[in-house]
C-alpha cells in the first residue's frame, strides 16, 4: 500500500481529484454527486447533534450493531424491495460506509492463503483488503464492450477451496447490472465448492431500467451471502459514511467481531437520519434512478459525439469510453493529461484490474455522470475539443 519511496500511495480517486482541483477541471473521475441528498435528512442529523444526551441527542457511542431504529429500517427496506425476511437483532450490522463492511467482512472470513474470487475490473478496496487478509486474489474477467462474464470463466475461477466470492451488482466501474443467468451461475458454483459470497450492492437503487436483482434472492444464495448497502449512493450523502451488511446470523456475528475492533460503532446522528430516509416512499427511490439516467444520457451522448465508443451503462454512476477510436492507445497516460489539456478528469479502467489483465483495458476510461446537468453540459462542450 506504500509507494516505492515509502510514502503513502494515494488511491487513483484521490490522485485524479487532486489533479482536477489543480487545473480547475470538471471532476468526472471520483464518483460523488455534486448535489447533496435530502434537506430533511440533514435536519434530522443536525437535530440529533444539537440535542442533549438522554433527550434525543446521539453524540455518544451508538450501539455496536447500529441504532435499533436504523436496523429496523434496513429490515423494512429489504422486505419492501426484495421480499427478504431479516431479523434486526441477528441479520443486520451497520458499518462506517460500505467500505468498512467490505473490510470487516473480508478480514472476518478470509485467512492467509484462502482463495478469493472477484469480478475484474473490481472496486479498489477489494484487492487491498484481500491483500491485508493474506488471501489469494483470483478474477473473472468482464470484457469490453458488453462486460458480461463468461460462464466458463466463472466455473474456472471458482475452484474447490475458494473461500469467498465477491460479487458487485450494479457494477463499478462498468455500470453493468449482472444478469440473472450470471448470478445463478456464480451462486451455484459457489454452493458446489462451499464458498461464501459477499455481494456489494451499493448502487441497488440506481438501476435505470427495472428492478435490481439482489444476489441473496437467487435460489441457494441466502444462506451463504452477505449483502452490502450504502446511504452514500442511495441518498447522495457519500461523506456520511453510513453502510450496512445483512445476512445469516453466524456470518454477521463474524463480521461484527472484526468491526468492534475497527471502529467499534458508527456515527449516531447520521444513522438516525438514514433510518428516516430508508422509509421514504417508492417514488423517492425511483426519482434517484431517473435523475442518474438523465445524467447518463447527457454524458454518453457527449462522449459519442466527441468520437469515442461508449458502453451502455444500465446502472450506477459511470460510463466507460474506448479512447482508441480517437487514436489514443494509453488511456492511463491520457487520464493524467486530460485535467490540464481538456479541463476534465476521468479514471483509467486499468486502475481497477490486476497488472496481468491491464492489456485488456488499456484504452478504456471511466467517466462519472453523477453530476448536475449544467456541469455535464459544460463537460460536453469541453469534450468537443478532443482531437
Ligand atoms: N463499493 C462500491 C462498488 C463503490 O463504488 C463504493 C463507493 N464508491 C463503495 C463500495 C464504498 O461505499 P461507501 O462510500 O459507503 O464506503
Ligand atoms: N467509490 C468512488 C468511485 O468509485 C470513490 C470512493 C473513493 O474515493 N474511495 O469513484
From TrEMBL:
InterPro entries: Aminotransferase_I/II_large, Kynurenine-oxoglutarate_AT, PyrdxlP-dep_Trfase, PyrdxlP-dep_Trfase_major, PyrdxlP-dep_Trfase_small. It comes from the Bacteria. Its cofactor is pyridoxal 5'-phosphate. One of its GO terms (molecular function) is transaminase activity. Residues 26-383 form the Aminotransferase class I/classII large domain. The keyword Transferase applies. Pfam families: Aminotran_1_2 (PF00155). Keywords: Aminotransferase, Pyridoxal phosphate, Transferase. Gene3D superfamilies: Aspartate Aminotransferase, domain 1 (3.90.1150.10), Type I PLP-dependent aspartate aminotransferase-like (Major domain) (3.40.640.10). CDD domains: AAT_like. PANTHER family: FI04487P. This is Aminotransferase. It comes from Zhihengliuella salsuginis. The lineage of its organism: Bacteria, Bacillati, Actinomycetota, Actinomycetes, Micrococcales.
Amino acid at each position: 500500500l506504500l509507494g516505492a519511496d515509502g510514502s503513502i500511495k494515494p488511491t487513483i480517486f484521490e490522485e485524479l481529484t487532486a489533479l482536477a482541483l489543480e487545473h480547475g477541471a470538471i471532476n468526472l473521475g471520483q464518483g460523488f454527486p455534486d448535489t447533496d441528498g435530502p434537506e430533511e435528512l440533514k435536519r434530522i442529523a443536525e437535530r440529533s447533534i444539537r440535542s442533549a444526551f438522554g433527550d434525543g441527542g446521539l453524540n455518544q457511542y451508538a450501539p455496536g450493531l447500529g441504532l435499533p431504529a436504523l436496523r429496523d429500517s434496513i429490515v423494512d427496506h429489504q422486505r419492501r424491495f426484495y421480499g427478504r425476511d431479516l431479523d434486526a437483532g441477528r441479520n443486520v450490522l451497520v458499518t462506517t460506509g460500505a467500505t468498512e463492511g467490505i473490510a470487516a467482512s473480508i478480514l472476518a472470513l478470509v485467512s492467509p492463503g484462502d482463495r478469493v474470487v472477484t469480478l475484474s475490473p473490481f472496486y479498489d478496496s477489494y484487492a487491498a483488503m484481500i491483500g491485508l487478509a493474506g488471501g489469494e486474489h483470483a478474477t473473472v474477467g468482464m470484457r469490453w464492450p458488453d462486460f458480461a462474464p463468461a460462464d466458463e470463466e466463472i466455473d474456472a475461477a471458482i475452484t474447490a477451496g475458494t473461500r469467498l466470492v465477491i460479487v458487485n451488482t450494479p457494477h463499478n466501474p462498468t455500470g453493468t447490472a449482472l444478469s440473472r443467468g450470471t448470478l445463478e451461475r456464480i451462486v451455484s458454483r459457489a454452493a458446489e465448492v462451499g464458498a461464501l459470497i459477499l455481494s456489494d450492492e451499493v448502487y441497488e437503487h440506481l438501476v435505470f431500467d427495472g428492478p435490481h436483482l439482489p444476489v441473496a434472492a437467487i435460489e441457494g444464495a441466502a444462506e451463504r451471502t452477505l449483502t452490502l448497502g450504502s446511504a452514500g449512493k442511495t441518498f447522495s450523502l457519500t461523506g456520511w459514511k453510513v453502510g450496512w451488511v445483512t445476512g445469516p446470523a453466524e456470518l454477521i456475528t463474524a463480521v461484527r467481531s472484526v468491526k468492534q475492533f475497527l471502529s467499534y460503532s458508527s456515527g449516531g446522528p447520521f444513522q438516525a437520519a438514514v433510518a428516516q430516509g430508508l422509509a421514504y416512499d417508492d417514488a423517492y427511490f425511483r426519482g434517484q434512478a431517473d435523475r442518474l439516467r438523465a445524467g447518463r444520457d447527457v454524458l454518453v451522448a457527449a462522449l459519442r459525439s466527441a468520437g469515442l465508443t461508449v458502453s451502455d451503462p444500465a446502472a450506477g454512476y459511470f460510463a466507460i469510453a474506448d479512447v482508441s477510436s480517437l487514436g489514443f492507445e494509453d488511456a492511463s497516460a491520457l487520464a493524467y493529461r486530460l485535467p490540464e489539456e481538456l479541463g476534465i478528469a476521468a479514471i483509467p479502467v486499468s486502475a481497477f484490474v490486476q497488472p496481468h489483465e491491464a492489456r485488456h483495458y488499456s484504452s478504456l476510461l471511466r467517466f462519472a455522470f453523477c453530476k448536475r446537468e449544467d456541469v455535464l453540459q459544460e463537460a460536453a462542450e469541453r469534450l468537443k475539443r478532443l482531437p
